[in-house]
Amino acid sequence: PSQPVTVSQKAWRAEGSRMFIEPRKPVSVDELLRGMIVQSGNDASIALAELAAGSEPAFVEKMNAEAARLGLKGTHFVNVTGLSDPQHYSTAADMAVLAAALIRDYPEFYPIYSEKEFRYNNITQPNRNRLLWVDPSVDGVKTGHTKAAGYCLIASSRRGGRPARPGNVATRA
Question: By the 8 A CB rule, do 133 and 46 touch?
């Protein structure tokens, strides 16, 4: 988590939501994870992909391989940001399976999804999942917006003392 990551020009110039990382200014993996998850930072998503796989396209290959492994038949990724592209698509059902796998396979990162805000580079941004403020049982997962898809939400909650798990994941696109 404390590993420093050098920010590329590509990550710095990312379109859409950002955490405002800067080129040649190292940022930690932990900060990038929070920027990606809490702030929906496309710049953080690209920086993490470049760290993990060497480039965004190489990481997208890994994303599609994982989608195939999970049986996501209605999903194909072309970028790590979720920005619109005719060849970048998914279904609500596939996103529910993906969210369930996230909760099940990476529980150590799951608490980040319920953080209501994150501050980086003297900029505090709220989590875009507004359900965190209106329903105390909601504990994550992710929001998104593009002109092509509109507003999207994958949410999970803990109810009746049950932890978030595959049966508790709901989606709405």
Answer: no
DSSP state of 123: E
* Distances from the Cα of 92 to the Cα of 24, 51, 64, 100, angstroms: 38, 29, 17, 12
CA distances to 55, 97, 158, 169 from 68, in Å: 20, 12, 28, 20
Give the model's pLDDT for residue 164.
Answer: 60
The DSSP code sequence of 34-95 is HHHHTS--HHHHHHHHHHHHSSHHHHHHHHHHHHHHTT-TT-B-S-SS----TT-B--HHHH
pLDDT (tens digit per residue) in 72-91: 999 999 999 999 999 999 99
The one-letter code for the residue type at 152 is C
Share of residues in the chain with pLDDT > 90 (%) = 77
